[in-house]
């Protein structure tokens, strides 16, 4: 049932999904002509795509790490101990830096939230 608030028709929506399918699966542009691809970021561009921007006056390390863990683990990974979290992170192809941080977690604890993981690593939000 159509509600009438869609900007695109069903056919146009399916066409756009088909066009983006290669990009979504491969993680890089798949067009034959380079001029179709978006322009890459410049060297002096801020790293906005790598995670949240820390608040002014803070280092933002705890917030960035918490964001990355939350993004990779999701809600369904908890409660879990260190080994279960490492299994989930490896299964989801997490970067080595986050896996190295997770390996520092105490083995004898069960974690119920991402915030507990961050606290166990000794990272505190900047104030």
C-alpha Rg, in Å? 20 Å
Pick out the low-confidence regions: none
Major β-sheet strand ordering: 1-2
Shape: elongated
What is the arithmetic mean of pLDDT? 77
Report the major sheet. Answer: 2 strands, antiparallel
Order of helices and strands: HHEHHEH
In terms of structural class, how would the helical and strand content be classed?
mainly alpha
Termini gap: 50 Å
For the secondary structure, the number of strands is 2
As a percent range, the share of strand residues is: under 5%
Helix content: 40-55%
If helices are DSSP runs of H or I spanning 4 or more residues, what is the number of helices?
Answer: 5
Q: Would you write up a description of this structure?
A:
- The protein has 127 residues and is mainly alpha-helical.
- 43% of the residues lie in helices and 3% in strands.
- The chain has five helices and two strands, in the order H-H-E-H-H-E-H.
- It has a two-stranded antiparallel ribbon.
- Helix 2 crosses helix 5 and helix 3 runs antiparallel to helix 4.
- The longest helix is centred in the first third of the chain and has 17 residues, at 10-26.
- The termini are far apart.
Keywords:
single chain; 127 residues; mainly alpha; two-stranded antiparallel ribbon; elongated
Question: Can you describe this structure in just a few lines?
Answer:
With 127 residues, the protein is mostly helical.
Which helices and strands, and how do they pair?
Elements: H1 10-26, H2 61-73, E1 80-81, H3 82-91, H4 96-103, E2 110-111, H5 114-120
Helix pairs in contact: 2-5, 3-4
